[in-house]
Design goal:
The protein has ten helices and six strands, in the order E-H-H-H-H-H-E-H-E-H-E-H-E-H-E-H. The chain is an alpha/beta fold. It has two domains: 155 residues, 3-Layer(aba) Sandwich (Rossmann fold), CATH 3.40.50; 65 residues. Helix 5 runs parallel beside helix 10. The longest helix has 24 residues. 38% of the residues are buried.
C-alpha cells in the first residue's frame, strides 16, 4: 500500500452523475436533428474539453456538422433541468470528502469543464469548501488525455504526483492522470474498465465507498509499521 498526501478528483462522472444527464440531453437533441450514433460519439468525448469535443464531432460527422447549434441546445436543456442544485451527486461523495479532511489530506479537483460551471455546481451541491484547489479546463492549454491538468493541480496543492491519487471514471481521464505519474483509481461510470484501463490504474473500484475503504488501508498499514518500529 502506497502512502499518499493528496487526492485529486475528476468531477463529471465522479463527483456528479452528470455524464448520464448530459448523454440524455444529447440523445434528445440528436433525435430532433436525425443525428445517428450519438451515444458512441458522446462516449468518445468524455473526459475532454469543449474544443476537443468539437474536433471529435467534426471528425465523426463532417465539417458541415452544426456543432455550435447542437451544443447550445443540448447545454440549454441540461442547465434547465439540472441547475440550482438539481444535478445528482454520486453515492459516497460526502463520505470520501469528509474522510480525507479528517485525515488532513489535500483535496483538489481537475475537471475539463469551464471554471464558472464547475464552481457553480460544486457550490450548489454544498461541497466546494472541501477542495483546497479547483483546476478547470479553461486554465490549461491541453485537454485530457494530456496530463497538464493533473500536473497543474499537483503544483497548486504543493504535492508531487507520486504522492497523489487521482480518481477518474473516463478513459481519457485515466490516461491523463497515469501519464502525469499519479496513482490512479478508476471508478467506472458509463464505460467499464478494459484491459488498458486496468493496466494504467492502481485499482478499479465500483464506488466511492470502496475508495474510502481502499485509502483507509494505507492508514492501518502505516500504524502497524509504526507499532512494529517501536517494538524493534
Amino acid at each position: 500500500m502506497k502512502q499518499y498526501e493528496a487526492v485529486i478528483f475528476d468531477m463529471d462522472g465522479v463527483i456528479f452523475d452528470s455524464e448520464r444527464c448530459v448523454l440524455d440531453c444529447w440523445i434528445k437533441i440528436a433525435e430532433k436533428y436525425g443525428i445517428r450514433d450519438i451515444e458512441r460519439s458522446f462516449l468518445a468525448c468524455t473526459g475532454t474539453n469543449k474544443e476537443r469535443t468539437r474536433e471529435i464531432m467534426i471528425e465523426e460527422y463532417g465539417s458541415d456538422f452544426p456543432y455550435d447549434r447542437f451544443s447550445k441546445e443540448a447545454s440549454k436543456l441540461f442547465h434547465d433541468k439540472y441547475d440550482n442544485g438539481n444535478l445528482p451527486v454520486k453515492p459516497g461523495v460526502n463520505e470520501i470528502l469528509t474522510f480525507l479532511k479528517n485525515e488532513k489530506k489535500k483535496i483538489a479537483l481537475a475537471s475539463s469543464t469551464r471554471r464558472e460551471i464547475v464552481l457553480s455546481q460544486l457550490r450548489d451541491a454544498g461541497v466546494l469548501d472541501y477542495f483546497d484547489e479547483v483546476v478547470t479546463g479553461d486554465m490549461v492549454t491541453k485537454s485530457k488525455p494530456d496530463p497538464e491538468i493533473f500536473l497543474l493541480a499537483c503544483r497548486k496543492i504543493g504535492v508531487t504526483p507520486d504522492k497523489s491519487y487521482a480518481i477518474e471514471d473516463s478513459y481519457n481521464g485515466v490516461r491523463s492522470a497515469s501519464r502525469g505519474g499519479l496513482m490512479t483509481i478508476m471508478v467506472p461510470d458509463l464505460l467499464p474498465a478494459d484491459d488498458e484501463m486496468k493496466g494504467l490504474s492502481e485499482i478499479v473500484l465500483d464506488s466511492l465507498y470502496d475508495v474510502v475503504d481502499f485509502l483507509a488501508k494505507e492508514i492501518h498499514v502505516r500504524e502497524e509499521e509504526k507499532e512494529l518500529f517501536c517494538e524493534i
